[in-house]
């Protein structure tokens, strides 16, 4: 793979957009086992495929998961996150009834918040320097 192996093309654009997403369980309950995380990854991959998003990497611990996604510019990260959290919560609670007793008050698997960070490309300082050094037309 070349240095630019993640570059994708759309109808009118060329892009390489990556985001690091972190979802935490409601009340930070430690509920996931390896079996849960394995199924969660497949659910997340299916949701990403529906959005034409590539799930590059997935991992997690007992109370949170990390995702690295490569997404097209037409995808709103907030809508992707809503779908990832909503579909995974519903399916996990259906397929693993033992999870339900952790959420007796609010039938939600995930906390209402999430982390999203942009990743990849050149550091901001390098980009600023590159833009500053562009020659203006006379």
The percentage helix is: 25-40%
**Class per helix and strand makeup:** alpha+beta
Q: Supply the CATH class.
A: Alpha Beta
* Helix count from the secondary structure assignment: 3
Main β-sheet description: 4 strands, antiparallel
The CATH architecture is: 2-Layer Sandwich
Portion in beta strands: 25-35%
Order of helices and strands: EEEHEEHEH
Strand order in space, largest sheet: 4-5-3-6
Overall structural domain count: 1
Q: What's the name of the CATH homologous superfamily?
A: Transposase IS200-like
GO molecular function: DNA binding; transposase activity
Protein name: IS200/IS605 family transposase
GO biological process, one term: DNA transposition
InterPro entries: Transposase_17, Transposase_17_sf
If you had to describe this structure to a student in words, what would you say it looks like?
The protein has 138 residues and is an alpha+beta fold. It is built from three helices and six strands. The protein is elongated, with a radius of gyration of 18 Å.
Topology:
Elements lengths: L7 E2 L4 E2 L2 E8 L8 H17 L3 E7 L3 E7 L6 H19 L14 E10 L4 H9 L6
Antiparallel strand pairs: 1-2, 3-5, 3-6, 4-5
Helix pairs in contact: 1-2
GO biological process, one term: DNA transposition
GO molecular function, one term: DNA binding
InterPro entries: Transposase_17 (IPR002686), Transposase_17_sf (IPR036515)
